[in-house]
Amino acid sequence: MSATTSGSMSTLAGIFRHAVLLLTGALLLFPFLWMVSLSLKAPGEIFHTSFFWPAQFYGIENYGKALTEAPLLRYLFNGFVVCALILALQVVLCAPCAYALAKLRFLGRDLIFAVVLAGLIMPHQVLSLPLFIIGYKFDILNTYTALILPYAVSPFGIFLFRQFFKTIPDDVVHAARLDGLSELAIVWKVMMPMSLPAIIAFSIFSVVGHWNDLFWPLIAVRDQSLMPPPLGILAFKNEEAGSDYGPLMAASTLVMLPLIIAFLVGQRWFVEGLIQGAVKQ
Amino acid sequence: MASVSIQCISKDYGQTPVLRSVSLSIADGEFLTLLGPSGCGKSTLLRILAGLEVQDVGSISIGGRVVDGVRPKRRDIAMVFQSYALYPHMSVAANMALPLRMYRLSAFQRLPFLGRLLRGAAQITADIDMEVSRTANSLGIGHLLSRKPGQLSGGQRQRVAVGRAMVRHPAVFLLDEPLSNLDAKLRVQMRAEIKELHRRLGGTFVYVTHDQAEAMTLSDRVAVMLDGELLQVAPPQGIYSDPANRRVAEFIGSPKINMIDVVVRERGLIDVAGATLAIDSDIPTGTPLSLGIRPEALCLADHPGQGILTGSVRMVEHMGSDLFVHLDLAGADQPLIARLLAERASRIAPGQRLHLGVRADRVLLFTRDGQRLRREADLVCRCVTPLREVAG
Amino acid sequence: MSEPLVFTKARTGSSVIRRAPLLAVSPARRQALAMTLAGLGLAGPAIVFLLGLFLLPAVAVIFVALTDWQFGAVSFSFVGLDNYRELFADATFRVSLVNTAVYVLIVVPGTTLTGLAIALLIESGNSCRSFYRAIHFLPFMATITTMAIVWEALLHPTMGLVNQLFAAAGLPTANWLRNENTVLPVLGLIGIWQNLGYAMVLFLAGLKRIPQDLYDAADVDGADLWIDRLRTITLPLLGPVSVFVVIVVSLKALESFDAVKVLTQGGPGHASEVLLYTLYRESFEYLRAGYGAAIAVVLLGLVVSLTLINTLIMDRKVHYQ
User: Which of B169, B138, B173, B176 is nearest to B43 (CA)?
Assistant: First the structure.
């Protein structure tokens, strides 16, 4: 704001800014609040009042039902396992490759980078059909492996790490070599500790994406005990087959909770990660 | 054309004071430089002059009119930024035309497409285009008008920035380190061009820099600022040879002025590292003083004697025409630096004992708290006669 | 048992001797060779997976699209471009294509403009920036599957909050998700709700990159009203970011699936049938692999062309930075 804007004008502008942002913010947040609100209401009350606050606190019944009638904890557990393993695999595979692309000069490097870029623009859903066939041939459908393997390597991860590694001076690498570190040791002992922001950003990107993914689990697993949260919720909804929204909303709240907590704790990293993620080109 | 009056300006950023009651008058048509190290508040003062920031205390007048609370565009000023701040998406012509468009066209006339149809708009636009190309030609950038800033060299961008400021014929030009993004060679060339520009336009220039050479070569007067305070305002030569206090003396000049703590032995005589210098008898015995000797105020001497400093050479820096000799004096923790003509002192080597005479008329006296003691002919030089001729 | 071991050792020894001529090669060549080995060794595992999980499947999709293969079938035959011919003759697919276009045309301008407006508002003041950024961003990281269920509850024809409010305000109510005319706009609104925060964050990043000096220069040059600042500096300098946002949001919109799957299953009729949902149904519900692959190829083509357009525009705008 210009320093010379008169005081009353800027006060007015400030009020306008807050008013609009609070309104849009409330509109955007409303579904979340409604979700929590419904998860605390009794079945009879759900559609007969438009008020947030439940007249009768029915939370224990709803959340109890969500946890007992559907294997919700199992879904959450599946989600954690799948996301953690995907992330671990991605980091282990992507970091050395990114290092080679960023810091080594070798025959075929440009070709490899072209392959990474090609993978980067490929929407994963397009590949679901052949991946399904591969899964079928190797008889890994309906296992954790089927949920994890297709995401074992992330072109975006390679790309992001490569960009970050490029900003680390070559002298650091040279010094590490003089100290007798192998190339692989340089990746893990030198590059990775120096790339913490990129790692965190990528982790967030990866975990949020895979926690929320519905498309591939829908194809890859049938067994309830293997379902990640979104697919589990969908199954729960179809089972209920009605409008018993209380337990469904309770389950939804529990599924969203880890992400929301993580988001509130690391808001800055989330946004940074997304911006990093955006700068794909 | 306008004079500028700055009265008791203070500003704090939170707890940190950036400007402490700065007062300064700038005459109509004067070229005044605000000189100081980075963080001294000189840019803040310039931005307050421009109206981009507001002072906490004090008042600014431009052309006799108080401009506190007046928007930048109504202050009759133009500014050249350190980064040039050219609009990257506009051509050079559009960059230079923007201030004129903003002043002369109404909001409706500035509407895209539609504005051109409004009465008068076409005529005003044509006038603006003409003035822009005239100004551009006078700066030698007439052939660049259709380029974007991204396609220009550093020097060309600098000219465009100056052109954008010139085109409005402002009463006061504010320049914020305009040469600091140029390479050394170009900087010297642009320095000359800015001086020429000031002569030609005759406007009031307020120029901010941390570069002493720029300040010395360009200015009518230099205002030295340190830590938010204005320490001295004087013509360039005055700032160098007649500093108001120790801080100015130490800031101006490269290599730095030699400062030696001394005590008056008896009226008229002080001891310096084993040698004795004669000074004005007014200062009472036992008064602690600081002696400021510029490196070029030292000259070679053949043998020790009164007024001759003797020490061993620590190192010699060859600068081409001159050389800097670092001399360790007995009892001094800092080496004394002397600037000697290379042709007269070619055989000086580290470890050698060397005698240096002090040119009396160039010695500066300060109290220990940094105040300047102004007395003419305080000291008598004891240089041996033939060497004095050499030094002269 | 011991003899083969000795033999192996002997072989190893001889290989060492055989490596000796390598020493005669120039040191630079040797170092280049070592670098290549190290590079390939480090990149190798990732590349194997990349080829196996991305490139080969992509080739396979294009290949399968030329066959009449069905999941479970033992044999298949090449049918050339028949799948594509059938695809573009298929009313359902054409509807799906049009629906996707309509959906993208709702989501992209809606998301971009609101995202820009909110980013500008947030950046126009200094207070509560990260708070506003957080609350506007939250929907983007939400699990769409669960949020779709919330939207279903909100949009419930008789008991949903939306219809209750509309009725109370005297506005027409509707069975939003079961009405051919409303279902796509409603899904579009949900898409905007979801992606707006993402656009906002990208615009905020773009705004941060505009140097303060330019605004100062504009102040001095007389462009000091907010509308002038917006027109002379902010909007032109956000140009490249805006292109990027439009493309990225278009890609997101093209790939939307979850809300359709949960809320409408493409219905009523085919009114909310979008490309990815059609792809899913043909491939994995009707098990028509060849036909589904052809849809995948169409989708891939759209995505790749959007990305190429983006790259082209970005390359042309380099001088902005």
Answer: B176
